[in-house]
Amino acid sequence: MFKEYLQYVFSRGQVRSILFTRSILFLFIGITYIAMLNGEATGSGGFMISFLGLIMTFVFNGYVIRSGMDPKKPVDFGNYFVFLFLLAIFLIVFVFLLFILMEPFIGSQNLEILKKQEEADPKAPFSPELIRLSLIIFFVMGSALYYIIPIFLSKLSILKGLRELPNCLRDPDYFVASLSPFVILFFPILLRALISNSKEMMDSFFGQILSIIIFFLIMTADIYLQYPTYYLLKKEKKSEEDPISN
Fold first, then answer.
1. N or C: lower Cβ tally within 10 Å for the chain?
2. CA distances from 214 to 168, 185, 207, 209, 211 (A)
3. 76 CB neighbour count, 10 Å cutoff
4. Can you give the pTM of this predicted structure?
5. Tens of pLDDT along 100-147?
6. Transmembrane residues, as ranges (predicted)?
């Protein structure tokens, strides 16, 4: 079904246009960031405009992809934007609660070390212990978000998504569909983290290729994120057409 999903996504010309615009904005962000470091007055303003534009490409691309998944149920952009705003608030609360639940397993001492590291020199290489800690936090939170966000996107409602969550928890196919995109993103990040303390490896051809792959996956993250949504809507449509077999 993933191949079918990619064919659907790239059959929509707007997606290609938005990805091209996103690439240009990434370039502008890099240029304006360098200008900021050099103390140019226009740097900060250009950086903020480019960054906001980049965020909007994810909003518009998400809408373009989601709106065509079910032609019988058109999606209004205004309602979609309101839903995203409510989803953002919900996810902030969710991540906060998830972090509280994770804290006893991580240990307050490790969190304090991580905080001191960021305050002292964010660019300094992490110790192996902090690398493992960061990867664990990223994996747990990333897996949880990649699991629940598509459910909300399929329903375009927080309440309906929460009601649908138990059904998804009982569906092993959804588990695979939701976590596969995140594993694709996590694996190169894991490899890069493992070589992050070796300047030779980071500067090597392998390290540069890893950076390019990670950049590409981040730039197209919204496409992979909506694959589980596509799966859920296809499953729902199949269930409506053939309720006996389901």
1. C
2. 29, 7, 11, 9, 5
3. 12
4. 0.82
5. 887 777 666 666 666 666 565 556 666 677 777 778 888 888 888 899
6. 20-39, 45-65, 77-102, 130-153, 174-193, 205-225
Note whether residue 108 is domain-resident: yes
In the chain, the amino acid numbered 70 is: D
Non-local (6+) Cβ contacts of 136 within 8 A are: 106
Number of domains in the chain: 2
Kindly give the interhelix angle for 158-169 and 128-155, rounded to the nearest 10 degrees: 110
Same domain, 127 and 57: no
Residues 6+ apart with CB under 8 A from 225: 146, 149, 150, 181
What is the per-residue pLDDT across 166-196, written as a single tens digit (0 to 9) for each?
Answer: 999 888 999 999 888 888 888 888 888 888 7
Give one DSSP letter per residue of the chain, joined into a string. -HHHHHHHHHTSHHHHHHHHHHHHHHHHHHHHHHHHHTT-HHHHHHHHHHHHHHHHHHHHHHHHHHHTS-TTS---HHHHHHHHHHHHHHHHHHHHHHHHHHHHHH-HHHHHHHHHHHHH-TTSPPPHHHHHHHHHHHHHHHHHHHHHHHHHHHHTSHHHHHHHHHHHHT-HHHHHHHHHHHHHHHHHHHHHHHTTT-HHHHHSHHHHHHHHHHHHHHHTHHHHHTHHHHHHHHHHHHHHH-TTT-
Residue 226 and residue 106 share a domain? yes
